[in-house]
Amino acid sequence: MGARLFFTYSLSSSPSLLCLSLTVCAAQMPAEASDKRKSASAHGQNIPDAVPPPLPNPSTGSANPSASLHALWGYLHPALDHIVRAPTNNPAKAPAIDVSYHMGVHTAVYNYFTSQSDASSTPVGLAGFPTRFSVQSEKAKASGADLYEQLDRYYADVAREIFLGAPADDSTLIHYLVPCFNRYSAGAQSVSRLLNYVNRHYVKRAVDEDRGWLRLADVLDAVARTIREDDTREKVQKRLRERRTEELRKWGYREGDPPARTAQIEAFAEAASAPDRVVPLTSVAYRRFRLEVLDPLLAVPKLKASKGGKKKRPPPAIGDKPPLPRGRLARAVKELLESKGGDEEEKRRLAGELAIALRTVGIRVDHPLRKKLDSRRTLGNTEHTTGRRLSTLGPSGILGPATGRLQRAPTFP
Predict the structure, then answer these.
(1) Nearest to 413, CA basis, from 113, 110, 204, 253
(2) What is the C-alpha separation between 297 and 354, in angstroms, rounded?
(3) Which terminus of the chain has a lower count of CB atoms within 10 Å, N or C?
(4) pTM exceeds cut of 0.85
(5) Eight-class DSSP state of 97
(6) For 290-367, where are the alpha helices, taking DSSP H only?
(7) Which residues, in sequence order, are bridge partners of residue 97?
(8) What are residue 123's phi and psi, to 5 degrees?
(9) pLDDT one-digit tens code per residue, 180-203
């Protein structure tokens, strides 16, 4: 009896098993079910993918979800787990929550930020201490920062669970990572839309206060060397904008790019920033995926030192350069691309989607693995001219390598 396509829905389901179960379900789909789906498609019938039902609005009774961070997080957490962690057969689409729950989250977050703003307008000093040390002043100073940092920790936990659930076999690592990232990305985008008030109220203000991914101190030295005493304020600001454009060019920006593409490129730079930089919530999620999942997998193991204190190097192969140690992900990519047999179209798809993931989470353009995957995508686009659309990054989506299939593109507020 063949396996069936299924999903299990439970808030207590183990997140570390989520991505692996998605891959197993897809791999074990019986041939007869696939034939039925193809037959239905041929007759113009659409068979929807199984997804968890919308999560209903939990009852809070007389409690006020916006009374404190603890109360607000208790109200938000089930929604986040459902959107980001709930198992689903369609990793490109995050499970939904009920409309009333969606509106309740918006209201609770708005009221929470409003209450903090009200506290900041009437600071009262504690006895014997300056006003700046008052409880209200400290709360106002961190208006939004506590929720933002809590969300950052949440994404760190989810990404760490994905890393810990990775298979030990390099041959299946990419098959695990690609659907994991797609599911994680869909959830992160959905959460960003749900909590857009955090982006508008806290993130925007932090960027205006020079706490964003690119700060004045980062470019001041380079700009200062070109400033003259008679330069006006407008000329200095123009040089700062030019310096920012130079940073974006490192991520693929070209003069005249439309605003949507520019926003996507800036999101790559945001995801590549340090954890202390304030960036939009989607970039927070991608940055955590890089730090907790991809960076450890890309790390090159250190060579063991011999008794004499010198590091041992693997013996060189005959006629070849001495082999250098590789990270797990580099070994997995090498095995995927150089293995004989198997579905070549599937290999190209996995390699292409992995290249998109590396770029989205902020792996730099000059990284050897990114260069290797990007060059193969370019080569695949020039070789496959059989009517399929080429792989491009456009303002409305990302096309997979030589598949002609429109994939979900990162969207940013």
Answers:
(1) 204
(2) 13
(3) N
(4) no
(5) B
(6) 295-298, 328-338, 344-360
(7) 55
(8) -70, 135
(9) 999 999 999 999 999 999 999 999
